[in-house]
Amino acid sequence: MNPIRIGYGNDIHRFAPERDLFLCGCKIPCRLGGLLGHSDADVAIHALIDALIGALALGDIGHFFPDTDPAYKGAAGEFLLTSTLSHTAFAGWSLGNLDMTIEAQEPKLAPYILPMRENLARIMQTDISRISIKAKTGEGLDAVGRKEAIKASCVVLLIHNQPDNNQ
């Protein structure tokens, strides 16, 4: 087995004025509301989950948490991430690092970067130095730039702590 694996994930959700905005498990004030989705629509955590699942070639977030399953209706991103990490496939793997970009024309995310990093480090039981989050705008282009959506992308490096020669 290769002792390191890289995964990539991305996601996009449109705004929903009646909802609260959650990014990386943090509630963030936004005059445009939150994001539309079956769960709490935490687009950043969804991208992270896809990256984690992709690193181990386990499919995608829809396979783990189908939007047709009422058990995940309104589910918090933090719950989905914790559930993903508790899957037996992740035993023996630890996070080397995580690099995430969140694209939002609004709200401005700079004041929330540190709390988002701290929250992901807490959930993933790792040092904050392994968590990078960057914020970008849509420069007035596409659905993000027109303030219709927020998009996130994430890459993760996983390191196997005890390589198993049988896999």
Order of helices and strands: EEEEHHHEHEHE
Give me the CATH superfamily: 2-C-methyl-D-erythritol 2,4-cyclodiphosphate synthase
CATH architecture: 2-Layer Sandwich
What fraction strand?
A: 25-35%
Mind summarizing the main beta sheet? Answer: 5 strands, mixed
What's the total helix number? 5
Query: What fraction, in percent, of the residue positions are helical?
Result: 25-40%
Task: Name the shape in a single word.
Answer: globular
Task: Describe what you observe in this structure.
This protein is an alpha+beta fold and 167 residues long. It has one domain (4-160): 2-C-methyl-D-erythritol 2,4-cyclodiphosphate synthase (60s Ribosomal Protein L30, Chain: A, 2-Layer Sandwich). It has 5 helices and 7 strands. It has helices spanning 43-55, 61-64, 77-85, 113-124, 142-145, and strands spanning 4-16, 21-23, 26-28, 34-35, 93-103, 131-136, 149-160. Strands 4-1-7-5-6 form a 5-stranded mixed sheet. It is globular and about 45 Å long.
Write the layout of secondary structure elements.
Blueprint: E1 4-16, E2 21-23, E3 26-28, E4 34-35, H1 43-55, H2 61-64, H3 77-85, E5 93-103, H4 113-124, E6 131-136, H5 142-145, E7 149-160
Parallel strand pairs: 5-6
Antiparallel strand pairs: 1-4, 1-7, 2-3, 5-7
Helix pairs in contact: 1-3
